[in-house]
Amino acid sequence: KFGVTAALLPEPIRAYRAEAVRIAQKMAEVLGSHPALAMWQIDNEYGCHDTTLSYSASARGAFRVWLSNRYGTIDRLNEAWGTRFWSMSYDSFAQVDLPNLTQTEASPSHRMDFRRFSSDQVARFHRAQAQAIRAICPEAVITHNFMGAHTSFD
């Protein structure tokens, strides 16, 4: 199922992320002091075609870890998500799946936390490249263009 560019998947693409950081660093070394350089654009159109969402097995595992870090206990997650409604409570984080392919709509809290998790993945990827550039060009202006609300086309 298509869901994301390789850059944003949480695992096992550490090599991809490392290569993106290496390229950003090399570009900063070569171009960073060029007088015509005004700013850096790290990526293009995060969010276009829902490319910030991954429904892979690795994303599922990373989402569970993210939830555990966020809530600490499964009881806190159940309370925050209001899972008592329709007997949707979880006994462990291992039971929490991604909010897709459900019989009916996933709970709004589940979907919101998945979006927050996905946003964190994007920010982590962007931050790693920005840090590589700033290590060489500390005053650099670094941006990208995000299309988060642009999820369908006519």
Describe the structure.
The protein has 154 residues and is mainly alpha-helical. The chain has one domain. Helix content is 45%, strand content 8%. It is built from 4 helices and 2 strands. It has helices at residues 14-31, 57-71, 74-81, 108-136, and strands at 40-46, 142-146. α1 (14-31) packs parallel to α4. The model has no long low-confidence stretch (mean pLDDT 84).
Could you give the order of strands across the largest sheet?
Answer: 1-2
Count of spatially separate domains: 1
Order of helices and strands: HEHHHE
Straight-line N-to-C gap: 21 Å
Overall form: elongated
- What is the helix fraction of residues, given as a range? 40-55%
**Quick one: how many beta strands?**
2
Average predicted confidence as pLDDT? 84
Helical/strand content category: mainly alpha
Report the sheet-strand fraction.
5-15%
Rounded radius of gyration (Å): 18 Å
Uncertain segments are none
Number of helices: 4
Major sheet characteristics: 2 strands, parallel
Oligomer: single chain
Pfam families: Glyco_hydro_42
Organism: uncultured Erythrobacter sp
GO biological process, one term: carbohydrate metabolic process
Protein name: Glyco_hydro_42
How would you summarize what this structure contains?
It contains four helices and two strands.
Give the helix/strand layout.
Elements: H1 14-31, E1 40-46, H2 57-71, H3 74-81, H4 108-136, E2 142-146
Organism: uncultured Erythrobacter sp
Protein name: Glyco_hydro_42
Keywords: Glycosidase, Hydrolase, Metal-binding, Zinc
Structural descriptors:
154 residues; mainly alpha; two-stranded parallel ribbon; 45% helix; 8% strand; metal ion binding; zinc; GH; hydrolase; glycosidase
